[in-house]
Amino acid sequence: xxxxxxxxxxxxxxxxxxxxxxxxxxxxxxxxxxxxxxxxxxxxxxxxxxxxxxxxxxxxxxxxxxxxxxxxxxxxxxxxxxxxxxxxxxxxxxxxxxxxxxxxxxxxxxxxxxxxxxxxxxxxxxxxxxxxxxxxxxxxxxxxxxxxxxxxxxxxxxxxxxxxxxxxxxxxxxxxxxxx
Amino acid sequence: xxxxxxxxxxxxxxxxxxxxxxxxxxxxxxxxxxxxxxxxxxxxxxxxxxxxxxxxxxxxxxxxxxxxxxxxxxxxxxxxxxxxxxxxxxxxxxxxxxxxxxxxxxxxxxxxxxxxxxxxxxxxxxxxxxxxxxxxxxxxxxxxxxxxxxxxxxxxxxxxxxxxxxxxxxxxxxxxxxxxxxxxxxxxxxxxxxxxxxxxxxxxxxxxxxxxxxxxxxxxxxxxxxxxxxxxxxxxxxxxxxxxxxxxxxxxxxxxxxxxxxxxxxxxxxxxxxxxxxxxxxxxxxxxxxxxxxxxxxxxxxxxxxxxxxxxxxxxxxxxxxxxxxxxxxxxxxxxxxxxxxxxxxxxxxxxxxxxxxxxxxxxxxxxxxxxxxxxxxxxxxxxxxxxxxxxxxxxxxxxxxxxxxxxxxxxxxxxxxxx
Amino acid sequence: xxxxxxxxxxxxxxxxxxxxxxxxxxxxxxxxxxxxxxxxxxxxxxxxxxxxxxxxxxxxxxxxxxxxxxxxxxxxxxxxxxxxxxxxxxxxxxxxxxxxxxxxxxxxxxxxxxxxxxxxxxxxxxxxxxxxxxxxxxxxxxxxxxxxxxxxxxxxxxxxxxxxxxxxxxxxxxxxxxxxxxxxxxxxxxxxxxxxxxxxxxxxxxxxxxxxxxxxxxxxxxxxxxxxxxxxxxxxxxxxxxxxxxxxxxx
Lengths: 180, 420, 251
What we know:
CATH architecture of the domain at 28-60 and 126-216 in chain C: Orthogonal Bundle
Number of strands of chain B: 4
Strand order of the largest sheet of chain C: 1-2
Mean pLDDT of chain B: 94
Strand content of chain B: under 5%
Strand order of the largest sheet of chain B: 1-2
Number of helices of chain B: 15
Largest sheet of chain B: 2 strands, antiparallel
Order of helices and strands of chain B: HHEHHHHHHHEHHEEHHHH
Helix content of chain C: 40-55%
Oligomer: heterotrimer
Mean pLDDT of chain C: 88
Largest interface: B-C, 57 and 51 residues
Structural class of chain B: mainly alpha
Low-confidence stretches of chain C: 1-6, 12-22
């Protein structure tokens, strides 16, 4: 092999070139193979196709809530009382860990729609039923690690960093919400 | 420099680098290995491909009689690249058997089973058994017509065992027919077995590296002149072989993905209707032919005493057709390994190959008319080859003179200008 | 010599499964647009095939594995798919009262099945079970040609064949006696694109549609295959050259 080197430089450079191309081709091949495997773990076409649901909300009275499943997650729909709406709006944004106006979180002030998953570690907070614990801010309370949410689903105290997320939704008509 | 220190630190505690260097880099391999020696590493690569695709398929598959078929179709239609992963897996099974069968025939031709490689060979036979079990159970999982009836027929083989046969079959099924418990345990075992194969393949390689690869001359390596380091000589040769193999593999995956499968398996399992022709996958056909060849009871001649009923006889013969390979080191005791220097053995080797092909062909035919007799003749020859011919040749065959060393053989071939 | 023999080995082994799978009836071989290395679906034909399926086949045969949303591949847009789906009703539920209810199908739903279960299908069809068509072209040997041959293979029974009650003679059906009456006749449907609806044309259209239904990813598969093969050819050549170079030291 050492004799080779002395013999001709073009010989070695051609070998280097082949070596490099070979390694590159191998690396590209392995990388390309990884794509389908990783992609296969993402949601499949049928899962994606079921990404919207329609909910009939005509039966809810003020102060009542219902929980529906959207993409496998609980979604809180609550018809808020006048008192609750007032509480949600009369808040100084400076007091909020994750400042957001109630007006930006709801489309119609009576209706709160939020994903019922605590933004701390994913438990489902209490507060949908009148008999539930509502926490110190009269909204939701996560029993896992003690996060308190207000009537707009905003985090007020506890370890959770963010407000309850609002899913994309629209009012199809006065009594039907389409989520997703 | 930093890397060197890290390496040393690890090496001191776990000598992994020197191990890899010794076994994959410097490992001295005979320099005259031909392309038939590609199939060992190729089999290892396919095993890895099968495990990788299998794991990702298992993430989407549902082992329940009501959902299995549809979950496979969901993989084919809805899961991202699911069709690709499944086609790799189903065709990979066939590729695995092609490669392993060629690997075995290589061993048969060059006497790779002889001392000091008997255990290496026997572990290979055990791997073959496990592969067959894995492949069979995997074929059941899509829960199509062939899955169901294949499972029924093969598990019923065990009912041939005298006295306890029926109890064993009930045990295998976990019920009174092939049903949900059967599917569930097959899924579990289909997932487990490949890892046993990995372990055995590891031992297979460890045993191989004790004395090193056999080679086309069958003469053991003696001096450094006989060998080359595994890397880069055989790594690059194996990679080239891998490329050729992957082209064949890809042609099946992308352009004939269902060619090696059976259309009936795209019909959901129906326990009330048996398909007109039950045929196992092609790689089982030779053994299937052996199973069907025993159509007669075996007993004491001229009496009515039956020792082995036909059904049990077929099962024994089929198991024996694979199992007999394990005895090969003691059936062929001729001191010369390679068929290259054993002209008579070589001739019979090719007869044996033809016989195996005939068995495969008969296995795919209906068990009627002339096919029965062809199957019986081929089965008889199969066992004749191992049990009578090889021991006879061991004692009586005059071999050609062996080269003094591998290097000598290589030099002599070069002189004659023979193609490698 | 050995390499030649191994090629023989390969080919012989491969021919086994084909032999094993083949029936005794010889099917006429037609050329299909989805055959071959660059095969793709004839969309106009497959769309017509959908029409024949909806107006004729769907009276008895389900297409359980296919969703309306899949029709996108055949060139329908979102609104067309919604409209096609809305022609059908599916059973959903239970609702809040615990009742199952009917609603118009949505793109995410599977093709609606004419029967609720196998028993109902048999009861309505003289005891015969019209098989699901989702995988028909894959579930029969040489499936595309088989479906075409079956649809066009109705004949009067030869004199020496005694037909059973309610059975029809078909040249290509295994056993020749099929419970399905000839489903197609000329001008049975009126094609929107003006194509003349002959039996032959409709049979071809149905085959195109069902071949798509059986393997909607066929085009992706063939396209990817070409790329993979080009890459592998390159891979193999590179390593062949490297191999030659490295081994040349030895000689």
